[in-house]
Amino acid sequence: MAFFDIFKKKEKQQENLDKGLERTKQGVFAKIARAIAGKSHVDDDILDNLEEVFITSDVGVETSLRIIDRIKDRVSRDKYVDTAELNNLLCEEITDMLAENNLEASSDPDFKVPEGHHPHVIMVVGVNGVGKTTTIGKLAHHFKEAGNKVMLGAADTFRAAAIEQLDVWGERAGVPVIKQKLGADPASVAFDTLTSAVANDVDVVIIDTAGRLHNNKGLMNELTKIRNVMDRVVPGAPHETLLVLDGSTGQNAYEQARQFVAATKVNELAITKLDGTAKGGVVIGISDQFRIPVKYIGLGEGIDDLQVFDRAGFVKSLFGNKI
Predict the structure, then answer these.
(1) The domain 3-100 is classified under which CATH number: 1.10.260.40, 1.20.120.140, 2.60.40.2310, 2.170.150.70?
(2) pTM of the full structure
(3) Cα 74 to Cα 89: distance, rounded to the nearest angstrom
(4) Per-residue pLDDT tens for 47-74?
(5) Domain 120-310, architecture per CATH
(6) pLDDT over 70 at 7, yes or no
(7) Which of 89, 107, 186, 198 would be a feasible disulfide site paired with 155, CB 3.0-4.6 Å?
(8) How many CB atoms lie within 10 A of CB 312?
């Protein structure tokens, strides 16, 4: 891809990100504007008010305190920080904080497949209603558009609607879906999918799983069984275990993440439905607290409305304009 084309693509992605985060941005800016009203420089009162702003914006208590500590250090170091410079300061410190946590997106922005194994296997987990199957369909579309051969596995066999929904997304993305009858063993579906993928030289396999209640130990154990079966067919699989969280649920997303991380080997996160909520701050908090990369963010219902998470672009969307 020519440099100009890459630049135009990144510019378009940033525009979509700005649009998708508009509600969060408006909410955060309004709160910050109130926090600094009547002040000419950043002082203790503003810092206390900012702490409340972040906590009420679903950034989370621990992460909010970390941000405020960084701002305090910066103000102390620079001696004087004008409130007009505050948004730039927030951009720099939050971006640096995420960078220090080594949370750079681990996937290629053009959805290239990692080297070193074939096929590349992604297992997707999350409770019902978070946009899990929709995210799978969008991933399949993007990977195929990047020139990969893609296959889906319908291992959520507990709901007929789940199999049907994955079928619909498979048709939209133009990729095959391996499935069995309702109530079949999910691990058996995963086995069939990977066996077929190996036989057909597939590049990317994405396995759907049941919308598991995060407090149900028996269902969580099923994930381990699926993982073990896949590893026997493709050593090392799944290479990615992607937990999908609904960004609009705010603090409940933290609890779901906590339970899933404790129960299975989650190594990536996708935060969905950010376009319809003012709770986009949850992305910063979850990234910081769990030390697990947010790999994708969902910004709409369209098949193209899924982006690889770019921490700098995300923070810029929230704080990049003057308050």
Answers:
(1) 1.20.120.140
(2) 0.88
(3) 8
(4) 998 899 888 888 889 999 999 999 999 8
(5) 3-Layer(aba) Sandwich (3.40)
(6) no
(7) 186
(8) 15
